[in-house]
Specification:
- The complex is a heterodimer of chains A (about 120) and B (about 280).
- Chain A is mostly beta strands and about 120 residues long.
- Helices cover about 10% and strands about 50% of the residues of chain A.
- Chain A contains one helix and seven strands; from the N terminus they run H-E-E-E-E-E-E-E.
- In chain A, strands 1, 2, 3, 4, 5, 6 and 7 form a seven-stranded mixed beta sheet that branches.
- Chain A has one domain: Immunoglobulin-like (Sandwich).
- Chain B is mostly helical and about 280 residues long.
- Chain B has one domain.
- Chain B contains nine helices and no strands.
- In chain B, helix 1 crosses helix 6, helix 2 crosses helix 3 and helix 7 packs antiparallel against helix 8.
- The radius of gyration of chain B is 19 Å and the shape is globular.
- Chain B starts with a helix and ends with a helix.
- In chain B, about 50% of the residues are buried.
- Classes of the chains: A mainly beta (about 120), B mainly alpha (about 280).
- At the A-B interface, helix 1, strand 3, strand 6 and strand 7 of A face helix 2, helix 3, helix 4, helix 5 and helix 6 of B.
Chain lengths: ~120, ~280
């Protein structure tokens, strides 16, 4: 009977050989709280380590969020995504990334686009 | 309803299923020889809990795809489903499903070999949580992983023993039920404080800076510690008031107050599991 728990511990030990990590946003362009006078051609998100960007959407105040597709499948620490055409207003850019340890991190970046 | 909102109760109930099944197996391993009539219903409870936990783990992992996409289209996105099942969270869930399947097979029959298989499955299902999440990437992983495993096994034992104890108090002769409740209280008296010690030690390693305790993760950890302290009240009342009163009484049935106290303890533990689901699923130390 004592062989069973030993086998269970061995299975767990072998399964846990790879250490995992979490990703955090360290920089965004446009910056959080930023005020722009020109519509950004792209959004840049920089994380502390490679992560997979699985969802990105932009929402103008008072409107429905708009999903931004065409996200790459591989993990990367720096994501540059072409921005849709933006008109003056306040925006929230929402993202979701998946870390190596499968943890889903979400966050958002708020910015305002002024009339030029 | 957003995928995050749906995922939270599914995750909470999956945790409850895993701990209930594992705890029933540990209970049978420790107290099986004491049971005259309660063995079969406790094995049945363990099997049903394991099957429920297994299905909920699969549902929780499937929903991860929707959480990743921030929409239910993620349920049917092969790339996101590969990511959900192929990452460490998916592998841990698969290992837990394997552990629970082993537990179901072990609890299908009586005997020492079957109890050994069931408790191995319980050990795998409980400890596989340590293969993913916040402790898995920490610099102090060598210290955190064994602490988390001890914490998880003891939580399984405590949480998973409550319903078996209720079953014993219903099926066993009163004197045997009292002996079992006393036996459990004796073991739990040593093991339950260890849950708090291991939890607090892990919390201090994961959140070393005072500012971390004011962030969402730290506040949820404090809520968990508070709920744990609250849980000790019905547990202490059971041990020092209800069980001695039951032993002294010549009533044939188990006092309603004891059943109510066990029910309160169980519900408080579900609340702790809900806090754990939110804390580990949405926040980081």
């Amino acid at each position: 009977m004592h062989r069973f728990p030993a086998l269970a511990l061995l299975i767990l030990g072998l399964w846990s050989l790879k250490a995992q990590a979490h990703a955090h946003l360290i920089q965004a362009t446009p910056a959080d709280g930023g005020v722009l006078t020109q519509a950004p051609p792209s959004f840049t998100l920089l994380f502390n380590e490679p992560a997979r960007l699985t969802a990105l959407s932009i929402q103008k105040d008072g409107e429905e969020p708009q999903k931004i597709g065409g996200l790459a499948a591989a993990a990367s620490a720096r994501w540059v995504i072409a921005a849709p055409k933006l008109t003056p207003g306040s925006y929230t850019l929402s993202y979701r990334v998946v870390s190596d340890d499968s943890h889903i991190m979400s966050g958002n970046v708020k910015f305002r686009l002024r009339e030029p | 309803m957003s995928p995050d909102l749906l995922w939270t109760p599914v995750r909470t109930l999956a945790l409850a299923g895993v701990f209930q099944a594992a705890g029933a197996a540990f209970f049978l391993l420790l107290f099986g020889p004491w049971l005259a009539r309660a063995g079969p219903p406790i094995r049945r409870l363990g099997r049903y809990a394991a099957l429920t936990g297994l299905l909920l783990l699969a549902a929780q992992q499937w929903l991860q795809g929707a959480r990743m996409a921030d929409g239910y289209e993620g349920l049917f996105d092969p790339a996101l489903q590969r990511l959900a099942w192929g990452g460490s969270g998916g592998r841990a869930a698969l290992l837990q499903i394997f552990g629970l399947a082993l537990l179901v097979c072990g609890l299908a029959r009586a005997g020492r070999a079957a109890a050994g298989a069931a408790s191995s499955g319980a050990l795998i299902a409980a400890c596989a949580f340590a293969l993913t999440g916040h402790t898995s990437d920490h610099a102090q992983r060598a210290l955190l992983a064994p602490m988390l495993c001890v914490h998880l096994v003891l939580v399984s034992f405590w949480f998973g023993a409550l319903l078996p104890l209720a079953i014993c108090s219903r099926h066993e002769a009163r004197s045997d039920a009292v002996a079992l409740l006393r036996g459990f209280s004796g073991v739990a008296g040593w093991l339950v404080p260890a849950i708090g010690v291991a939890g607090l030690a892990m919390a201090l390693i994961l959140v070393p800076a005072p500012s971390g305790w004011r962030a969402a993760y730290g506040l949820l950890l404090l809520a968990k510690l508070g709920a744990f302290a609250l849980l000790l009240l019905p547990a202490a009342w059971n041990r020092w008031c209800a069980v001695p009163a039951m032993a002294a009484s010549d009533a044939r049935t188990v006092p309603m107050a004891l059943r109510r106290s066990i029910a309160i303890e169980y519900l408080l533990m579900i609340a702790v599991l809900a806090i754990t689901a939110v804390m580990t699923g949405f926040y980081s130390p």
